[in-house]
Specification:
The complex is a heterodimer of chains A (106) and B (115).
Chain A lengths: L3 E4 L2 E4 L5 E7 L7 E6 L6 E5 L3 E2 L7 E6 L2 E6 L8 E7 L5 E2 L3 E5 L1
Parallel strand pairs in A: 2-11
Antiparallel strand pairs in A: 1-3, 3-8, 4-5, 4-9, 5-6, 7-8, 9-10, 9-11
Chain B lengths: L2 E5 L2 E3 L5 E8 L8 E6 L5 E7 L6 E3 L7 E6 L4 E6 L8 E7 L10 E5 L2
Parallel strand pairs in B: 2-10
Antiparallel strand pairs in B: 1-3, 3-8, 4-5, 4-9, 5-6, 7-8, 9-10
Classes of the chains: A mainly beta (106), B mainly beta (115).
């Protein structure tokens, strides 16, 4: 299985900050990389699919980039409602997930 | 609005069986492949199984192959996961999710395997 290494595990940032979260795959995943947001007690919500496609209804401050083995989720201006855990998923082959990044407000 | 609602979880003894259900609404269920994913307490997410829209293609994680069976009833808009020979390491929150790239998820149902 493809291993996904996500960093950082924890992130503390202020409202308005630019935030980046990274996922590195153990092999080329050809941009088959999704990003999700999960708030406590809620279902995971798809933010970005196939590296850089914004899911319907997701604010434009969320964006994704990357290729090959390295991928990034960027929040351009952090809002209080963005406090959550974020994780990546590769679906190039049998799906595997990053371990998650817990994002908190400073 | 797409909705996925899991049920059937609970406390079960090791070696016993349990069947989970996921009822779908808000979309044409028969057009989409479906997945089960789980998250053990304090652990990361693990994909468990996938079934194609017409049940022609079925895949399992190695950790559950031979013990779990994914199925679906398109007339009832329902996805199933039959779990047998349960082990303590199967204790987890089980989610169903739509599509090969997991675009919508349910809120999950807890399965606890313990004597």
């Amino acid at each position: 299985d493809i291993q996904m290494t996500q960093s950082p595990s924890f992130l503390s940032a202020s409202v308005g900050d630019r935030v980046t979260i990274n996922c590195k795959a153990s092999q080329n995943i050809n941009k088959y990389l999704n990003w999700y947001q999960q708030k406590l007690g809620e279902a995971p919500k798809l933010l970005i699919y196939n590296t850089n496609n914004l899911q319907t209804g997701i604010p434009s401050r969320f964006s994704g980039s990357g290729s090959g083995t390295d991928y990034t989720l960027t929040i351009s201006s952090l809002q209080p409602e963005d406090v959550a855990t974020y994780f990546c998923l590769q679906h190039s082959s049998r799906p595997t997930f990053g371990a998650g990044t817990k994002l908190e407000l400073k | 609005e797409v909705q996925l609602v899991e049920s059937g979880g609970g406390l079960v003894q090791p070696g016993r069986s349990l069947k989970l259900s996921c009822v779908a609404s808000g979309f044409t269920f028969s057009n989409y492949g479906m997945n089960w994913i789980r998250q053990a307490p304090g652990k990361g997410l693990e994909w468990v199984a996938y079934i194609s829209s017409g049940s022609s293609y079925i895949y399992y994680a190695e950790t559950v192959k031979g013990r779990f069976t994914i199925s679906r009833d398109n007339a009832k808009n329902t996805l199933y996961l039959q779990m047998t020979s349960l082990r303590s390491e199967d204790t987890a929150l089980y989610y169903c999710a739509r599509h090969a790239f997991l675009d919508y998820w349910g809120q999950g149902v807890m399965v606890t395997v313990s004597s």
